[in-house]
Amino acid sequence: MALSRWLEQARAMPGAPGLRQVDVDASTWRDIAQDVAASGGRLLALWGGRGGDTDRKVAMVVLLPDGALVVTMALDRALERLPGIEDVFPSASRMQRALHDLTGIRSTDPDTRPWLRHAAWPGDVFPLATRELPTPPSRPIDDYAFVRVEGDGVHEIAVGPVHAGIIEPGHFRFSIVGEKVLRLEQRLGYVHKGIERRFTELPILAGHRLAARVSGDSAVAFSWAYCQALEGMAVARIPPRAAWLRALALELERCANHLGDLGALGNDAGFAFGLSQFMRLKEGWLRATERALGQRYLLDFVVPGGTSADLSDDGVTVLRQAARTVDLEARTLREIYEEHAGVRDRFLATGTVVPELAARLGLIGLAGRASGQAFDLRTDLPCEPYESLAVTKCVCDAGDVLARVTVRFDELLASLRVIETILRGLPAGHHAVVVHPPVVGSSGIGLIEGWRGPVAVALEAGPDGGIRRCHPHDPSWNNWPVLEHAVIGNIVPDFPLINKSFNLSYSGQDL
Amino acid sequence: MLKTLRQIAKVGIVTESPPAADEDLRIREALEQRIREVLGRALCIRQVDAGSCNGCELEIHALGNPIYNVESLGIRFVASPRHADLLLVTGPVSRHMEVALLRTYDATPDPKLVVAVGDCGACGGMFGTGYATTGPVSSVIPVDVIVPTMQPRIRNSSSPSAIVACVAGCSARAMRPRVLLGA
């Protein structure tokens, strides 16, 4: 009800279909957040920019049941703080802390610990607000104020940043009694590479390549979201074939990741057979992808105006064959997983996030759908060609590891059907058109449902074909804090399994 | 159980022969001789992500799949640098990982080898050098071998066969010396 007053003021924004934008000021920033939450909407991303002391802007993207809304606000006075919305959207907390680390805009919320900043730059320097940065200290190291849990027999286990497997770096601090986890606190930011500042040094027509490398496992999702924003701003229409090829690439990426995860989940449950079988399928899948589109991982496939390669008739045959093989084999392996008592025992009721908690904390994407949060951009806010692909939304209410495995199996099989549909209906024509740099100061936001969840890229054009600001958002921002809740009451040895069932990105959130 | 066994029997062994060791990357003969003496038959690798986008990690993971099956070559990924002969490092090195990388290097017993993987590990890649990254792995620790990006189309990410070829080039006397070292 109350939300409608904002929607009436909102106007269309370039990028994702149905995207609308509304300006508010500091006195109504919290109101709109509360109205969004009351109408079942959820926070996706929150970021800011600063050109000088007079140009301090903050924006958030919220996903509504029937659309997406961008809320922007200019903070005028140098000392004015951003009204914190952590009580409305708990996932805002880390985004607000990162906002301060990078731009100096502080929120009114109580947790003022740095999030992305460790010791590579001093606390009074802001990489997105300062032209000249001081020389970083060599061997930067600092201390972080973890929350201490006290009581009889409570002790801590500190893990990371270098983990025991082939995993991205991050630090986990467990407070435990015996083998039971009382609390997990994450500390991330180890792979902060300064991506947002790096964007401002690139031509706007080349930024998609960096976007693809925000998180290498979601290269298609990020590069497509970037191009969607850019093409919207440049008022460029991509040929239908290009849109279909991008959807094909996105689904290939989804299947590759789901295959890898399903194997790793079996392995973490002590079933090495699952790992070798699924890794074999994944390798075949990547080889088919390479034969059809020229790359194993599609890091440089989505480009402004379309795609960098076309799909030949041979490619169609290769992919169709690969999809059929995986479909058949995945069904067999699913039966084996389902009938294996040991595997089932490890998956069931482990790392549970019930739907009420998931809704309260703002769990999104694949993990969200496994906890009853039935939202998928491909069906709820479809861009071309998804409106004509009839994607099945896969949802489960249990919220445990088993539910996240089930959603992966369901999505894998559904995605294979989508691939079949794309291969059958791929329109003829060009696979790319020329795109010119958009007008200086124009902005747009792309939204794409990657395999992990909704990916957003907010883009603002700068002078001379450059980028003034680009903020890529990975759904891991929203889901990492929920993992802290998912492990409460579980035993320490189940953590790797629970963590894998979420499989969140470090690079994607560390930026 | 029956289904599991049937699946195993049906699939059979899918491991491919490894690519020949990359001769250009073969480490100096004297050092190689020394490694043979010290390390014996196997090579233990500790992988360190020092700031990667996770793309190279996916390909390093693939080394363990039944098709590349590097364990059959005597190459094993270990959980601690204290058990490792070789550090396989992906980059660019973020400044926040600098100390962790140095400590990992220091914890690895001598003689040790360092292999930098991918464009970003070699030169910083698209991320370059900045307030948050020091760029190539060699900016923080000495690097012996760089795994090049083998397929020019797959920029910034090294393919599994490229990694095997390089690691095999460093490997002392693995299980199949004829294949690995061209002996």
Brief characterization of the structure:
The complex is a heterodimer of chains A (511) and B (183). Chain A is of the alpha+beta class and 511 residues long. Chain A has helices at residues 2-9, 29-38, 92-103, 195-199, 207-212, 219-233, 240-268, 272-293, 313-339, 341-347, 355-361, 365-369, 377-380, 401-425, 476-486, 495-502, 507-510, and strands at residues 11-12, 19-24, 42-50, 56-64, 67-75, 154-159, 171-177, 180-187, 302-303, 306-307, 443-449, 454-461, 467-473.
Structural overview:
The complex is a heterodimer of chains A (511) and B (183). Chain A is α+β, with helices and mostly antiparallel strands and 511 residues long. Chain A has three domains: 2-103, Beta Polymerase, domain 2 (2-Layer Sandwich); 153-193 and 476-511, Enolase-like, domain 1 (2-Layer Sandwich); 237-434, Orthogonal Bundle (Cytochrome-c3 Hydrogenase, chain B), CATH 1.10.645. Chain A is built from 17 helices and 13 strands. Chain A has helices at residues 2-9, 29-38, 92-103, 195-199, 207-212, 219-233, 240-268, 272-293, 313-339, 341-347, 355-361, 365-369, 377-380, 401-425, 476-486, 495-502, 507-510, and strands at 11-12, 19-24, 42-50, 56-64, 67-75, 154-159, 171-177, 180-187, 302-303, 306-307, 443-449, 454-461, 467-473. In chain A, the strands form four sheets. Chain A has a five-stranded mixed sheet. A three-stranded antiparallel sheet of chain A has the order 6-7-8. In chain A, strands 11-12-13 form a three-stranded antiparallel sheet. In chain A, helix 7 (240-268) packs antiparallel against helix 14 and helix 7 runs antiparallel to helix 16 (495-502). The longest helix of chain A is centred in the middle third of the chain and has 29 residues, at 240-268. Chain B has a single domain, classed as Rossmann fold. Helix content of chain B is 33%, strand content 15%. Chain B has seven helices and seven strands, in the order H-H-E-H-E-E-E-H-E-H-E-E-H-H. Chain B has helices at 2-11, 29-39, 55-62, 98-107, 118-123, 160-170, 177-181; strands at 43-49, 75-77, 86-90, 93-94, 113-117, 133-135, 145-147. In chain B, strand 1, helix 3 and strand 2 form a beta-alpha-beta unit. The N and C termini of chain B lie far apart (43 Å). The model of chain B is unreliable at 150-157 and 171-183 (pLDDT under 50).
